[in-house]
Fold:
Amino acid sequence: MNLHALLLEREAANRPVTVGLIGAGKFGTMFLSQARLTKGMHVVAVADLNVERARAQLKSAGWPAEQYAAASLDDALKRRGTHITANAESLIKHPDIEVVIEATGIPEAGIAHALKTIENGKHIVMVNVEADAVAGPLLARKAKAAGVVYSLAWGDQPALICEHVDWARAAGFKVIAAGKGTRYEPHYHRSNPDNVWDILDKYLNITDRKSINPKMFNSFVDGTKSGIEMTAVCNATGLVPQTNGLAFPPATRFELAEVCKPKSAGGTLEKEGVTEVTSSVYRDGKDVPHHLALGTYVVIEGETEYARKCFGEYAMLPDKTGRYAALYRPIHMIGLELGISVASVALRKEPTGAPTGFRSDVAATAKKDLNAGEMLDGEGGFCVWGKQVPAERSLEQGYLPLGLAQNVKLTRDVKEGECLKWSDVAYDPNDLAVKVRREMEAAFARPNTDA
Structure:
């Protein structure tokens, strides 16, 4: 509860938290819109391969042109301005930048930037949950060994869910399930950048289709993003995936405790202590009222009669038996809230969620029958979607991580719904992301090992 006070202390000492942002996309730009207004925080540099786009993004976020006109990093530090560059390595290596935010969304780039940031003794806030799903447990372990903080990004749903779980456990409650809401129907797993509009037009009023990236949006629709985000939650909290991954049961926000409890207690879950994503659409295609499509939740158990009585007395959204109850947050504010992570890692040396083990993975899964010789096109594309699987099974079966299923050629035919394996593709063993992932698999050969 004292981050603002700590930021004001740094402001008063003329020693603001210095930040370098890599990636001026939507998430990064939302952060920039608030960072400019946050006392005690100084965005020294923004790195993006498209410098002109970065300038346009800063302008759209309300930044005066003179504020991002710094000719160099040193000039930006001297004048309390911001330097725009295409060279991410320059801000990573600059000795006066404390925190690096990785917001490219590209797994290979995120892994490379994280490694360099850790090597240079800086804290890293990993907006790039795609990279975290591929190698986060190893990156967090390396950061800890180097004496720096690796953190998930506040404002994104995984970090918010981690906070729910931490709150529950710190208050002495057993966590039954945690997760988020989304829009889901079983056929969504086959959606691709061409037909995703058939789904998007039902609930989003997008008048200018050129304004969005359909491949990126499709990763939210086809189930991939849910698998990635719940993997991040499992690896950070100790919750585990269900054997068959996410089931996406429909539920209103008031039914969370009834739906997201074990089947043995009348719910839909395989067991307690898992992640689940609820759907805002019933299986007949009708919308769920009071759904949680943009929110997050945790379901807890009252282990005493007294606690269960309190659930009812204080409107804790209990199930019909009164044994379980839910707490939810209806929305998340994406990059507008990211400053919480930056302040936390810099001022408290504390992450807003970070991997502590390898418990969950995201397996590349065929959207259709695939043929040997086809090139995989990665997240949100035409070939594969990302399914959450237990890490132990992923290691045993040699599943190909979704984050590395890009620009690699299939070496055998794969049926729709089948999880791809490393042995199914011609990958480059010398690729940095591949090497880091293989290193992680070796380091966490026994899942649930603490970092």
User: Anything to note?
Assistant: The longest strand covers residues 174-182. The chain is about 35% helix and 15% strand. The CA atoms of residues 151 and 351 lie 5 Å apart. The two ends are 27 Å apart (CA to CA).
